[in-house]
Design brief:
198 residues; mainly alpha; Four Helix Bundle (Hemerythrin (Met), subunit A); 5 helices; 0% strand; rod-shaped
Length: 198
Amino acid sequence: MDAASWAAIVGPITTLLGGLGGYWLAGRNDDARDRRTVAREESARRAALADRLEEDRHAFQRDILLELQDELQRLARVATRILLQDERTVKESGRLYQLPEGLSDEEFQIFTAVRRLRARVLDPELREAVEGFVDVCSRASLPTSGGDKDEILARLRRQQARVRESYGAVNDLLGERLRRELDRRSLAGESLESPEAA
């Protein structure tokens, strides 16, 4: 066989193999492109889910902090009312008596609400501050025994001052954490400065 015959036989086979090879490579490229597209879509779905979960977490935490702020204020008020009731009782009778039932029940409900909300707070420093405030308020409802009328009144006034100071401290910390949750720009890593200030 001469070269022209070989060329006549090999030419169509080469063309056929080239066409099949091109088709096969195009298929591989399409498969690779499809896999990359699926991977990008999956990554975008995961990122969107992570963003949605993060947004839900911040909304949940914001709502908890707002409710906690209200309950802490109620707790400060009831603790102060208890101390003022004790002060009136000591001034009138010279000693302490049990709290009126309604006041004691209200105190228990508020303590329960604050502890429930405290358990949901993510920030450990804030949880500790809330627990410290709860402890100060729970001591306010314990009877102050021993000593004469003036000593008992002095202790009650010191307890009132501790409740005020502790409430101020926990409320300041809570306010700072709440502002952080509400300031979405800082969460996104943007500057807190306005464009005019830059």
